[in-house]
Design brief:
Structural class: alpha+beta
Organism: Arthrobacter gyeryongensis
Keywords: Membrane, Transmembrane, Transmembrane helix
Protein name: Band 7 domain-containing protein
């Protein structure tokens, strides 16, 4: 074998070796830490039920059920690869804001075996191959914040965004869970324009007590608070009503679990802020009853 042939063969061997290494790296990068993200609308009745629209589209049809619950985003993350993926951040990304990179993290609510679904409370999570994890988050708190901060905005787009350790790019739910939310909307249940006071109260109650996703008493407590409050109630009135019903006495004393003290201090202000943001879009039971009385047939 002459020197030229030997050189060519060595060059071919080196090229094949480099190609093989490059292919191995590409396969490894594709297999490592790859996730698929979905985001669905859902309604959580703590400790009892979880209704979901698993199509990824906006809105939730509860049919004939007047179900009370917290309106949440159900974020489902799957690992279709052959190696584990470590999730380091899960956020709601906002498009349409003056900040093109606006993304906000919120505290997830844990539930176990409600409607066949279990969710976890921590975003830092190791996702094994061919496995999935579910997060339930209060997206309305983020949406309301953005609209309050930017009064000129008429609508925004929202999706879930996930950061995986070792990956530069984020994964999002734009293929399954990319919502356009308008400023005038108050609920994910059609026609989207109004929300009950008890739903607003319940959304803040889940921040006050530990393990709220497992607490079936929170829904009943939100109804009792709704019946004692009105649109004119002050933050102090709201907090005092909660303390009187749930903490100082009554049927709920001692059965609601541990309390987040800071959330309890903030409870009245946070509920009042949500109610003020919604304004006339809040449905109060006594106002409904009064309206029914005013429209009743006087001959009956």
């Amino acid at each position: 074998m002459d020197s030229t042939t030997a050189f060519v063969m060595a060059l071919v061997a080196l090229t094949l070796s480099l190609v093989n290494t490059l292919v191995s790296v590409i396969i490894f990068r594709k297999a490592a830490g790859r996730v698929v993200v979905q985001m669905n609308t859902s309604l959580l009745n703590p400790g009892r039920s979880l209704l979901s629209n698993d199509k990824g589209t906006w809105g939730l049809d509860t049919h004939t059920y007047d179900e009370n619950g917290v309106e949440l985003a159900k974020i489902v993350i799957e690992n279709p690869g052959r190696t584990a993926a470590t999730l380091t951040m899960v956020e709601l990304r906002i498009e349409g804001s003056k900040d093109p990179d606006l993304a906000m993290a919120v505290r997830p609510i844990e539930v176990r075996h409600i409607g066949g679904v279990s969710s976890v409370p921590n975003f830092n999570y190791r996702l094994e191959p061919f496995d999935q994890v579910v997060y339930l988050v209060d997206f309305w708190s983020v949406v309301s914040y953005v609209f309050n901060e930017e009064p000129e905005l008429r609508q925004i787009n929202v999706c879930a965004s996930v950061k995986v350790a070792g990956q530069n790019n984020r994964y999002d739910s734009k293929k399954h869970g990319y919502w356009t939310i308008r400023r005038e909307w108050a609920s994910l249940r059609g026609p989207y324009m109004r929300r009950t006071a008890r739903s607003v109260i319940l959304a803040e109650l889940v921040n006050v007590f530990d393990n709220p996703g497992h607490n079936p008493y929170l829904t009943d407590l939100s109804v009792k608070l709704e019946n004692q409050l009105s649109h004119a109630s002050s933050p102090a009135d709201i907090t005092e009503a909660l303390q009187q019903i749930a903490l100082l006495g009554g049927e709920y004393r001692g059965i609601l679990g541990d309390v987040n003290v800071w959330a309890l201090i903030r409870f009245g202000w946070d509920v009042k802020h949500r109610l003020q943001t919604l304004g006339q879009q809040v449905i109060w039971p006594r106002a409904t009853e009064l309206s029914d009385e005013n429209t009743a047939d006087p001959r009956t």
